[in-house]
Specification:
- By secondary structure, the chain is of the alpha/beta class.
- The protein has one domain: 3-Layer(aba) Sandwich (Molybdenum Cofactor Biosythetic Enzyme, Chain A), CATH 3.40.980.
- The chain has five helices and six strands, in the order E-H-E-H-E-H-E-H-E-E-H.
- It has a six-stranded mixed β-sheet, sandwiched between helices.
- A hairpin with a 2-residue loop joins strand 5 and strand 6.
- Helix 1 crosses helix 5, helix 2 packs across helix 3 and helix 4 runs antiparallel to helix 5.
- The longest helix has 23 residues.
- The two termini are about 25 Å apart.
Length: about 160
């Protein structure tokens, strides 16, 4: 299928945030994978950090750690339904606009890989302070699925639309 925005892609300045109570920058495989996939697609990764899955710490990290030129943020981890999965709760309070279709499509694609467990994901996306923010589960498989099937094909277009 031909992409409707083919030829209009441009490099995007992205930042990767991993929400985890147990990972460090050194063993954060999902964050490293995201950084590699963004770079291979021609985008600029401005930085990567790991923050505890605490809503106040996530919000503070987003407010204080992102370089001014950040256009898009990938947040991975903390999207499930366990007591410690609180990333969605933090982001839903911050987002200025939500892209409900992102979570719906992610769960649909995920269903093909993991079956009914896909419904337990609270993957989401939206706009925050003029930046496009994607929140995905923290497994490498989920990060790869989200980036390859949804985020990378539409990233330049989403950033362009957000700037209007």
């Amino acid at each position: 299928m031909s992409h409707p925005h083919a030829g209009t892609e441009r490099p995007v300045a992205v930042f990767v945030v991993t929400c985890s109570d147990s990972r460090t920058l050194e063993d954060d495989e999902s964050g490293k994978l995201a950084e590699r996939l963004f770079s291979l697609a021609g985008h600029t990764v401005l930085g990567r950090l790991v923050v505890r899955d605490e809503p106040d710490e996530i919000a503070r990290a987003l407010r204080e750690s992102l370089p001014e030129e950040t256009e898009a943020v990938l947040v991975n981890g903390g999207t499930g339904i366990s007591r410690r999965d609180r990333t969605f709760d933090a982001l839903v309070r911050l987002l200025d606009k939500r892209f409900d279709g992102f979570g719906e499509l992610f769960r649909m694609l995920s269903f093909a890989e993991v079956g009914p467990a896909a419904m337990l994901s609270r993957a989401s996306a939206g706009l925050w302070n003029g930046r496009v923010v994607f929140s995905v589960p923290g497994s490498p498989a989920a990060v790869r699925l989200a980036l390859e099937k949804l985020i990378l094909p539409e990233l330049s277009h989403a950033v362009r639309e957000a700037a209007k």
